[in-house]
Amino acid sequence: MLSTGALRAHLLAARLAGPVATTREESLRSYRLFAARDPRVLLGLEPERRWDVGELLGLMAARCGVSADPAHVSGPDVIDPERTVAALEAFAERLAAAADARSPVLLGTGHPHRLLGFYAALGQALSAAGCVVLTPAQGVGVDMATRFGVRPHRIDYVRGVALVREPGARGAGSATGAHSHSPLPVRIVLGALAEAGGPLPDLVVGDHGWVCGAGQLGVEAIGLGDTDDPALFVGEAEGRVAVAVPLDDGVRSDYYGPLLRHVLHRAGLAGRQEWP
Question: Is the pLDDT confidence value at 272 over 90?
């Protein structure tokens, strides 16, 4: 496991924190859309109150470390590595609690090209600890909004991690899927589990709509969020997302390996997984 100092250095060197690839323009656009309650950035969350852009900027400064200055409108956005490290500790605590209780868990990602290996290794370690990794609604269709309009997708699982893919894009079980923000897949998955009589997950691990959609339905959810994902951090502030870890969610997949090893060590799950 990396020391805290070495982990912080890796976060900065890999641009998982510090100046990140997500631009200030992208982040501010997301805050404006969230304030307008645009479903594209709500990610399935239904905020308890109105959040204006200034409040969102203050929240993201506190939770992620972005600049709180509204006059700062361009350039790379910034994540404070200290906040990332602290959130990873809380993330590990939730994993440890799930492992100790042998809880059923669900893993899902809207970033399969980057984060599939990270979540798959978490699932493998939790399974080895006695948790049931749930994989319901395999192959079930879901119509999702894209920049080209509403398109049919289907739910698939790769190494125990839920994702969505467009029919015909790749065969079931292939390691790639669609980039998605939608909460519809997790709603379908949880609905299928409820209809079948359970068990329902005690913990959902993932990003985007998988986390916010589950949290909105009252399921404990933890995940990763970038500076242009205010819904996860609003959900955390309002108590429907248990842990939101601020980091760049679009870097090379192998850059998440040291974070994985750190989290599993802190959760008491080291040695129970393979990477990638």
Answer: no
